[in-house]
Specification:
8% of the residues lie in helices and 64% in strands. By secondary structure, it is mainly beta. The chain has one domain: Hypothetical protein, similar to alpha- acetolactate decarboxylase, domain 2 (60s Ribosomal Protein L30, Chain: A), CATH 3.30.1330. Strands 1, 2, 3, 4, 5, 6, 7 and 8 form an eight-stranded mixed sheet that branches.
């Protein structure tokens, strides 16, 4: 992973075989990012996507190269523990040109270009909700 920090934007280049979530968490820790939005393009080598059915995530793994059609999310912290939470949605194009998408659970990169935009004077906190999810609460 290669990282360059600007005024409020952080550009990340991810390489073949890197774990997307772990790499992004490492960047957040190293650059003290607790409140941000991000987007990206590139390709996954393998990706696990989930769909929330109202009770749990129904997950599916897509192995093999896929093109990232959309990748966007936010970075926040849990209210009590202060742990980094990365919430990502993605859409990917498969070899047959079909497109699938949902909540990104995990992914192994083939290549990626990620841009993180810090949110100044806005705290993003995650709180437990009755839905079973941790809801985003801007403060």
């Amino acid at each position: 992973m290669t990282i360059k920090e600007g005024n409020s934007t952080i550009a990340i280049r991810m390489y073949d075989g890197e774990d997307f979530m772990e790499s992004l968490k490492t960047a957040c820790k190293n650059y003290k990012i607790e409140s941000a939005v991000f987007s990206g393009i590139g390709m996954f080598r393998s990706v696990e996507i989930g769909y929330w059915n109202g009770h749990e995530y129904v997950k599916r793994v897509f192995d093999g190269l896929s093109e990232i059609v959309s990748l966007q999310g936010n970075i926040s912290v849990t209210e009590k523990e202060g742990d980094i939470v990365i919430h990502v949605h993605t859409a990917i194009a498969l070899h047959d040109y079909s497109v699938v998408g949902g909540h990104l659970v995990n992914a192994v990169m083939y290549n990626g270009e990620i841009f993180i935009e810090r949110l100044h004077n806005i705290s993003l906190l995650r709180k437990d909700e009755s839905t079973g999810l941790k809801g985003l609460n801007p403060a």
